[in-house]
Protein 1
Amino acid sequence: MRTLVFRAVRKQNDPKSCDEAIHENGFRFTAQRRQVYDAIMARRDHPTAVEVFMRVKEKMPSISLATVYNTLETLTECGLVKHVHRDRESSRYCPNLQPHGHFFCDKCGVVFDVPQRTNAKVDEVWAVPRRAVVVHREVSFRGLCPDCASQKKLSSKLSGKQEGRKLKSRS
Ligand SMILES: [Zn+2]
Ligand SMILES: [Zn+2]
């Protein structure tokens, strides 16, 4: 197995450090890899491989879905992007290398980063057995994003008013 070199905090979107990461793992930063990486960095919305493919195809019509898949795996192996999983959905990709969790909105499907507070000690929150070795930690939240939550509030207020009116007319 290839030994991977990870940097704890890599300066984000710094082309030099991306080149470094790719080289450290014995790859070259080809034009295709650059395009795929840029497509994820540009929007930071946790796209699926197919979504990345659609974006890159606009600039590089010759690129294939298989190449995008392979490139995403390479970028993941180099520690430049991370897989984001949710139940049985297809993998999404995240370029944020800072400690963070993910929020999944049940209504609109948006996925966004939940940053970890810098002074919070996660190890004090989770009672991981002392001799256990943690190699991966994934924190996820599910529910309604702020937009969907405020829409829900609004619609329940409106329907509440209507019900109030109905009751009044009945009496
Ligand atoms: Zn993320
Ligand atoms: Zn939402």
Protein 2
Amino acid sequence: MAARDRDSLVSAAGEAEERALEAALRPKNLDDFVGQARVRQQLSLVLEASRIRERTADHVLLSGPPGLGKTTLAMIIAAEMNAPLRISSGPAIQHAGDLAAILSSLTEGEILFLDEIHRMSRPAEEMLYMAMEDFRVDIVVGKGPGATAIPLDLPPFTLVGATTRAGLLPGPLRDRFGFTGHLEFYSTGELELVLRRSAMLLDLKVNSAGFAEIASRSRGTPRIANRLLRRVRDWALVHKLEEIDLRAASAALDMYEVDARGLDRLDRSVLTALITKFNGGPVGLSTLAIAVGEETETVETVAEPYLVREGLLGRTPRGRVATAAAWEHLGMVPPAGAMFGETLFTLTEESAPELFED
Ligand SMILES: Nc1ncnc2c1ncn2[C@@H]1O[C@H](COP(=O)(O)OP(=O)(O)O)[C@@H](O)[C@H]1O
Ligand SMILES: [Mg+2]
């Protein structure tokens, strides 16, 4: 999509050309995986237990915004279990037959990674229920009244599902995962660790202030942190800098239009539309998406989670609203009586001193 191309620097979705680079920076085991302490602990317990029981591990569901490490964790699970990994994705499985073909070729103990599992077709989903629970599928042969279902036993395997939208998964599917890990945005400190590791692998010299600056503009997302690091590296190369410092990092990132709070063009255009076209809201998500020329799903999964976490955007029963902090971030003053969710915001000398100066 054109909008995605335009925003590829700051979008959290990995584009094809950077996959190879990403692969080089991907941590290979749980110990190298930075942050997400809770998920990491829980997962390592699940894996350890299955090793002790000498059984395949329970099915694992990983959820969270793009770029936080779902694919990385799936690969780590396979590595930790010393098991082969098969990768497919919801959109690639359009027919139950597509899934049957994958399932019937699995070997014992194999890890099946299904990315974007919420986008699988209904019939495939139903086949998956039985496969997950009973390690069995029914292959339907023939059509109409003469059709017969031939049961097929599967070797025990571990399904690792990933989704950016856990809320969209039907209950019966969610219930069949023995463990669900929800990945959270990373703290600036954690992103600094990600960056230090990447800089070492890329043989880059960056000082502490430089790391801190890149980390604080990375939207809590390792994929973005790594991408910004490469852009800053380019900038330093062209400017013949030996070491990346605060000034280099911030000059480079300003040039790429990543602002001090890490907001990219998509984030800013969502906030700007919300404020200038809808007077701060509330406005429905799909209307907002149309106003910025993006797909609803992009706004909902890519921009919104971070804006909400940053306290710039609120979700209310009547729609999305810009918070006072959003107006402030864009250098604007909320109109008197602006609605922030359900509360009436009144301007006082304290909340908006600039209005009371003469
Ligand atoms: N916890 C982490 N520690 C270090 N690097 C990470 C971590 N999580 C993600 N990354 C980096 O970010 C990139 C994107 O992660 P990925 O697993 O592809 O995200 P997702 O599948 O959730 O979109 C990876 O190439 C990896 O280098
Ligand atoms: Mg992924």
